[in-house]
Design a protein that fits this description.
It contains four helices and four strands; from the N terminus they run H-E-E-H-H-E-E-H. By secondary structure, it is α+β, with helices and mostly antiparallel strands. It has one domain (about 40-135). It is globular and about 35 Å long.
């Protein structure tokens, strides 16, 4: 019998540690960049919610009920927070949070003062396009 079989495994594990530490150190700048991207996306999402919040003459229609813009913005923020794990981009926010009711499946609508209705997703994508144009 030679020694216990776990010794070579321990030795290999110890030899791999410098490689693991180097890989982790190399990944640090990437994770910082990803964090910055997430913060930038969060700022864009917040800008879209603010656009809803500042619609003075419009109502947010959810499950057939009209809500004013301040209530709508607060609702979207809470729903975003509750579904944060599913939202990695502005498009995710529009598609998964701000387009339809999770309860009924009915689309959210924006009803303007003139009676015209627009799906919230269409409104938010138009607002996103405006924001992109102003940043260029």
């Amino acid at each position: 019998m030679t020694g216990p079989p776990h010794r070579p495994l321990r030795l290999r594990a110890l030899l791999c540690l410098p490689i693991v530490f180097c890989a982790a150190a190399a990944a640090l700048p990437l994770s910082a960049t990803a964090g910055e991207l997430a913060a930038e996306e969060a700022a864009r999402i917040e800008a879209l919610i603010a656009a809803v919040e500042h619609l003075g003459d419009a109502a947010f229609i959810r499950n057939g009920q009209a809500h004013d813009s301040a209530v709508a913005a607060e609702f979207l923020r809470r729903k975003w927070q509750a579904q944060a794990a599913q939202v990695g981009s502005v498009e995710d926010f529009i598609e998964k949070v701000a387009s339809f009711s999770s309860t009924s499946g009915r689309p959210y609508l924006i009803r303007f003062g003139d009676g015209r209705e627009l799906p919230c997703s269409v409104f938010l994508r138009a607002e996103r396009a405006k924001l992109q144009r102003t940043r260029q």
